[in-house]
Each structure stands twice: as C-alpha cells, then as structure tokens.
Write a structure and sequence with these properties.
Elements: E1 2-7, H1 19-22, H2 27-41, E2 44-49, H3 53-65, E3 70-74, H4 83-92, E4 96-100, E5 122-125, H5 130-143
Parallel strand pairs: 1-2, 1-3, 3-4, 4-5
Helix pairs in contact: 3-4
The protein binds 1,3,4-trihydroxy-5-OXO-cyclohexanecarboxylic acid (DQA).
Protein name: 3-dehydroquinate dehydratase
Pathway: Metabolic intermediate biosynthesis; chorismate biosynthesis; chorismate from D-erythrose 4-phosphate and phosphoenolpyruvate: step 3/7
Family: Belongs to the type-II 3-dehydroquinase family.
C-alpha cells in the first residue's frame, strides 16, 4: 500500500526550532525513522514537505491522481486556520490521519482548534516522532495492511 506523509510549514526546521517543544531530532532523522519503520510494516512511503499552503494543496490533489491509499499529515500552524487545506483533504477522499509532535491541546489557546481534524479519520498529538508511527499504525488498520 502507498502512504504519503505530508509535513507542513517549519517542520523542515526540526532539530533547530524550539527544541524544548519539538525535541532534538532533525527533520532528516525523523524521515529516516519513518522510512525505516514503514519498510518494516510493508508500507511504501513517500514524504513531502512544504512551507507553502498552495504547494501542500497541490500535493494533496496529486495524491488523488496517484491513487495514494492513505495520508499522514502534520499541517503545522495551518492546522489552526487553513480552510483551504481542510477543503483539499475533504476533496480527495483518501483516508487521512492528522498528527502533531506536541500535544496541541495543552499549549496556547489558538492551538487547541484544528480546522483540519474534522475531515480526517482522527488526530494523534503529543508523542513526538512516534505520533507519525501511531498514524501509520492507524492507517494500516484502516487499510487492512497485514
Ligand atoms: C505542530 C503544532 C502546531 O501548532 C505548530 O504550529 C507546528 C507543529 C506539531 O507537530 O506539534 O508547526 O503541528
């Protein structure tokens, strides 16, 4: 099965940005960890990152044409206000899991709202890099991978 991981804005700065919140793991280390785990799970994983809302939307629409089986998305701060990203997720009819490294619900008030989660299967937040692994496990279950 084909799963696409989409990282939104500033996630390419992992290991540099707010280490107290997001940890020491670099963006490349995170992606290596995801690729390795996916391989062990028999999942073919593709990873995409952009800081631009429109590019994230274009990639979601491309996933529709590519017939991707499932999506794991960390929309970064777009989570909290991008109706355009929400509409894109709702448009493509691909099971999508929203993930966050931090527990957005115990942070600033503006992070408590996700406009994207209601069009996803569910949301996983607060487990650092492992949030993405939990997302993969949730999708495997949904897609009946082994
Ligand atoms: C984040 C949480 C968002 O509020 C923030 O804007 C991010 C990262 C997370 O993974 O914890 O960029 O999505």
């Amino acid at each position: 099965k084909k799963i696409l991981v989409i990282h939104g804005p500033n996630l390419n700065f992992l290991g540099i940005r707010e280490k107290g919140v997001y940890g020491e793991m670099s963006f490349n280390e995170l992606n290596d960890y995801l690729l390795k785990t996916a391989e062990e799970m028999g999942i073919s994983l593709e990873i995409f990152q952009s800081n631009c809302e429109g590019d994230l939307i274009d990639r979601l629409q491309q996933a529709y044409y590519d017939e991707v089986d499932g999506i794991i998305i960390n929309p970064g701060a777009y989570t909290h206000y991008s109706y355009a990203l929400r509409d894109a997720i709702a448009s493509i009819n691909i099971p999508t899991v929203e993930v966050h490294l931090s527990n957005i619900h115990k942070r600033e008030e503006f992070r408590h709202t996700s406009v994207t989660a209601p069009v996803c299967i569910g949301q996983i937040a607060g487990f650092g890099a492992y949030s993405y692994i939990l997302g993969m496990q949730a999708l495997s279950k949904k897609l009946n991978i082994k």
